[in-house]
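Practice problem 4.
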């Protein structure tokens, strides 16, 4: 029997046996948790690169099967499971069980919605390029096994890439030009990841294994470059960009984020916050401080290594400030946080880099932030800001931001809550932390760091207008770039990358300022309820120990106030 046929049969048997086991309609909280546990196992098996990235290395030798039959089987399974969950009598359950039901339903809604509306397999070539780049990157980033075993897993994945690219070509019957352009750029930037980075694992391979590895690597690069050429030839016939429309956008806000706002209200919030931070910049004694300028730093790093070291060194003083002022409890299990250079393949949609926390299954508690290649003459906002004072961005990405918050979330014992990832909470907490550190005295008035905090909030507010207007069909991509430049105060390179990221990940760009607004709103209500017992550090501890949950749910947990959730579900 051919391996692919055997794999598809195995997947079918998994679905059949799962369906048989739950033939009777699930009715109890225990049934819900069994459904969820089975679903997470099924998901991890069907998306092996996701599993590797999350720290589960059982299927490191595989890539996701994107054959049409496998895609349709996965979609049907998620849809049927959502139907089962929706029929459960959760309205009669207690508070904690109902919360778990709402969370698991939202997780499934996320999958089913994007399958139905965005249809990434048919519209977005980035799916296939990202599968290849992340398939290798997830093996490289942590030393979870010997270099030889990781290199052998990489060889196995490299061998599967030409076939995966062919699956992509067959699936892409309605590709979007903007997504294709981003995929082309990523595919043509992948060589250094496969050559320079990956070769560091191959030192212990035997001569025959090395020959096999190099052959697979070269074939994968050829396939990816060929995919870029194939896409480029078809660009003129592609639709430039396809917005989801306001009705679908509102569906995400309500059913996935459990957010008590619609698209128009979110867009208005963005306008209000943009006006506020643009005005606060102007109230600085020296408004130019909001625009990072490396020339103001007397100690400009000499090279990339010195830059990364200087960047990373500032974390200790921030941790000391948090502890001294009792602003947050840092658990003993929190690992080291390092700064690394951003691989070229990820630059098209991540111009400022990205943070990599410990995965939900990770045994390694370390995390890192990938920042673009150092260049003291760069016009890139993130590079300029990092040279002048890296602490505002470091606080967002490291401690008290993403690295700390997600590390705490990974230690929840409730699996549904541990698996939940609400971007509005995650990004809202990190953005809130930037200003919280400023307001509590880490950065002096009229400093470069204070100016940077205001600019960072200003352009995060501008993100809302771009995201909502792009995906509801009111703006073109060029309008989005111009808005980031004029309203957000970004350079064209950063603005273009930001707009590309907004287009590629619907609703992701609203998460920062919407989440910060919700956290600030909850803070005021929390203080009022605590009265004389209120302490800011206790609020922070109570907040992040809930995991990455929708803030309407967190408000119900902390304050026993269900009004925001009721508004979202109305």
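Answer key:
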């Amino acid at each position: 029997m051919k391996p692919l046929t055997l794999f598809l049969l195995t997947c079918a048997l998994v679905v059949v046996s799962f369906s048989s086991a739950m033939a009777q309609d699930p009715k109890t909280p225990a049934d819900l948790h069994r459904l969820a546990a089975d679903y997470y196992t099924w998901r991890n098996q069907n998306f092996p690169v996701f599993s590797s990235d999350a720290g589960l290395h059982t299927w490191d030798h595989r890539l996701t099967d994107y054959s049409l039959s496998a895609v349709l089987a996965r979609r049907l399974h998620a849809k049927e499971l959502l139907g089962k969950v929706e029929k459960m009598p959760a309205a009669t359950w207690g508070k904690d069980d109902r919360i778990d039901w709402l969370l698991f339903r939202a997780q499934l809604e996320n999958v089913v919605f994007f399958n139905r509306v965005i249809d990434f397999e048919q519209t977005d070539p980035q799916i296939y390029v990202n599968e290849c780049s992340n398939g290798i990157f997830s093996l490289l980033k942590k030393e979870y096994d010997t270099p030889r075993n990781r290199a052998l897993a990489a060889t196995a994945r490299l061998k599967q890439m030409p076939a995966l690219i062919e699956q992509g070509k067959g699936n892409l019957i309605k590709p979007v030009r903007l997504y294709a352009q981003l995929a082309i750029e990523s595919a043509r930037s992948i060589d250094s990841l496969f050559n320079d980075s990956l070769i560091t694992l191959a030192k212990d391979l035997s001569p025959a294994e090395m020959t096999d590895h190099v052959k697979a690597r070269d074939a994968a690069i050829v396939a990816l470059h060929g995919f870029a050429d194939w896409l480029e030839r078809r660009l003129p016939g592609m639709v430039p960009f396809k917005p989801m429309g306001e009705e679908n956008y509102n569906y995400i806000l309500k059913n996935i984020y459990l957010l008590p706002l619609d698209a128009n209200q979110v867009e208005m919030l963005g306008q209000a916050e943009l006006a506020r931070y643009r005005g606060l910049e102007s109230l600085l004694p020296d408004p130019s401080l909001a625009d990072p300028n490396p020339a103001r730093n007397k100690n400009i790093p000499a090279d990339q290594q010195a830059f990364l070291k200087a960047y990373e060194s500032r974390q200790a003083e921030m941790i000391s400030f948090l502890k001294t002022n009792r602003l947050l409890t840092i658990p003993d299990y929190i690992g080291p946080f390092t700064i690394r250079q951003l691989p070229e393949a990820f630059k098209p949609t991540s111009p400022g880099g990205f943070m990599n926390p410990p995965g939900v299954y990770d045994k390694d508690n370390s995390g890192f932030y990938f920042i673009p290649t150092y260049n003291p003459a760069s016009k890139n906002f993130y590079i300029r800001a990092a040279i002048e004072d890296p602490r505002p961005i470091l606080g967002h990405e490291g401690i008290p931001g993403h690295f700390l918050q997600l590390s705490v979330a990974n230690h929840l014992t409730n699996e549904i809550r541990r698996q939940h990832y609400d971007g509005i909470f995650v990004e809202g907490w990190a953005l809130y932390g930037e200003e919280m550190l400023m307001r509590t005295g880490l950065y002096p008035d009229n400093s470069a760091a204070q100016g940077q905090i205001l600019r960072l909030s200003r352009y995060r507010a501008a993100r809302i207008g771009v995201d909502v207007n792009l995906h509801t069909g009111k703006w073109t991509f060029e309008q989005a770039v111009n808005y980031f430049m004029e309203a957000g105060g970004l350079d064209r390179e950063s603005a273009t990358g930001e707009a590309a990221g907004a287009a590629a990940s619907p609703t992701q760009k609203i998460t920062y300022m919407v989440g910060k607004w919700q956290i600030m709103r909850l803070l005021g209500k929390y203080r009022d309820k605590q009265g004389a017992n209120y302490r800011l550090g206790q609020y922070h501890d109570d907040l992040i120990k809930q995991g990455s949950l929708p803030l309407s749910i967190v408000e119900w947990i902390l304050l026993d106030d269900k009004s925001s959730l009721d508004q979202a579900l109305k």
